[in-house]
Design goal:
TIM Barrel; two-stranded antiparallel ribbon; globular; binds zinc ion
């Protein structure tokens, strides 16, 4: 039976991919995000067959509903530097291959920055890169563009740009992730008030479409609205706040997504039970409230 909400976190796969599943279980999560390979190296190492098998059987036993991989931070599909661009495409392709091997639902990546390039040229580069990766690597896992915190010519801080890139990519195998902290930092949602999230919801629906957005990166923001500075904070402790998340979760089409935390943790060790409990309570309260109002 599917659980009432989908909640997960980015967890460490140190010592074996299955360990991330065990951590998710211990936090009572039913979704998970991991790195399939090192996020800070161009070179990738495919996990061993035994590691892949152990991961898949642990996932099955844990009954995880959705699993995502996060790509390396080095990737910039819009880079004007030919060498960085080709390394980016190659590296992202390898992470995407691992996502398919692990039977993950998708690979989330940061789109990148075109630096001095005109925006349209930069977006065409991104689309070209994604299309070549999709062509090279078949499989059901989706390649997922994440909205950015903006600044430095970063692409995809606003839904219209993401929508334009989706159009250029022109594939059902491309999807989108919405990061709540980046949305605030980019000035897309300066305030997570009821009217603020409603305006955002409609704008995103129009430009991207919620049916193309399977995953929410649920992070509070340590930095101010429109700061264009990407710094995640624990749930309820940043500029979004508990009420801000409640307002967003009140919208059913958003609440139904997989909410994945990438928070620093109350002990600084990454997503923990305290954050998971907070987010679960927010989602369940919103669900109960919606039910009682029906
Ligand atoms: Zn994110």
């Amino acid at each position: 039976m599917p659980r009432e909400i989908k909640i997960g976190a980015h967890l460490s796969a140190a010592g074996g991919l299955a360990n991330a599943v065990f951590s998710a279980e211990s936090m009572d999560l039913n979704c998970l995000q991991i790195f399939g390979a090192s996020p800070r190296q161009w070179r990738t190492k495919l996990p061993s067959e035994a590691d892949i098998r152990a991961f898949k059987s642990a996932r099955k036993a844990a009954g995880l509903e959705e699993v995502y991989l996060h790509a390396a931070y080095l990737v910039n599909l819009a880079s004007p530097d030919q060498e960085i661009l080709s390394k980016s495409v190659g590296n992202l392709a390898e992470h995407f291959r691992i996502a398919q091997e692990l039977e993950a639902d998708g690979l989330v990546f940061h789109i990148g920055s075109g630096k001095e390039l005109p925006k349209r040229t930069a977006m065409e580069k991104v689309a070209e890169g994604v299309r070549s990766i999709l062509k090279e690597i078949p499989g059901p896992a989706k390649i997922i563009l994440e909205n950015s915190a903006g600044g430095g010519q970063k692409l995809g801080s606003f839904p219209e740009e993401i929508g334009e890139m989706l159009e250029l990519i022109d594939s059902k195998r491309a999807a989108v992730c919405f990061d709540t902290a980046h949305g605030l930092e980019a000035g897309l949602i300066p305030e997570y008030t009821i009217s603020g999230v409603k305006t955002f919801f409609e704008r995103w629906e129009e430009a991207v479409g919620w049916e193309r957005t399977p995953v929410i990166h649920a992070n509070d923001s340590r930095t101010a609205p429109s700061s264009c500075h990407d710094q995640h904070e624990n749930i309820g402790r940043g500029y979004i706040g508990v009420q801000g998340f409640k307002n967003l979760a009140a919208i059913e089409a958003v609440r139904m997504k997989a909410w994945i935390m990438e928070v620093p943790g109350f002990d600084g060790d990454g997503p923990d039970s305290q954050n998971a409990d907070l987010l679960r309570e927010i989602l369940l309260t919103a669900k109960r409230k919606a039910k009682s109002e029906k």
